[in-house]
Amino acid sequence: MTVTSPFNLELIVDLQLFFCDRTSSSMSQSSCQFIYFRVKPSVRPEDPSSEEGQALLNVFRTAKHQSGHQSSAWGRTSEDPDLIVWVMDWSDARSSTDQGLLDPFLAEDNSQLPTSIYVTLSPPITATETLTQNPVTELCTLPYASTLSVPEARQISADLISFRTAQMESMPQVTGPLSWAMGQLDRPCKLNHALSPSGKATVHFLAVGWDSVNAHLEAKETLKFSQGVAPLMEKMLAPIPGLEMKHVSFQKI
Length: 253
Prior knowledge:
By secondary structure, the chain is an alpha+beta fold. Helices cover 30% and strands 26% of the residues. Strands 1, 2, 3, 4, 5, 6, 7, 8, 9 and 10 form a ten-stranded antiparallel sheet that branches.
């Protein structure tokens, strides 16, 4: 694995901060859209006999014909089987799909509206098919106060790279992750957070592949994991409602 040099790391963080303040969505670059939404129990896309499920699959398939679509996948979270994550990889960060098409399938008692975020993952999932090849993918958001200084933001990025290196290269294959993609939220580049002094948080996003949910839980008990995650936890805010850590088995669309 190639580890970003300190010079490149500083450049990446500076550019992220620059474009976040100057409408990063105008940039023409690939971006991955994650939509989290809770469905009615009767919506079963994996069941050919479920009319509502097949109708939802048709929504997924129709999005494949949109300009800029590169690949897409969907899956249920192990934490809440009624919560679906729909992922689309776009060749242009300005591309998107009509989230309103999901309305007929949403749970009637849903207190959490669908959440859509865009992130540029490294490495890109189009090149690796990371999500659909993993038996289970951990989706994890790491929120930090938007008021952090540039040196503090750089240090968090450096700690993330060190954490990834330790997990991917130092842990035995039987206990470590299968893949690791990460990035910082592009759109929206800041999310509301009550515990941030500014009321806003910048968010890092991880998509990590595991053999199983248990494999991830066991890895979290290791010394290397606890040592690697400790610096990241120091300034991390509480999870954002609706974007807590999830485990998903993705299916290609």
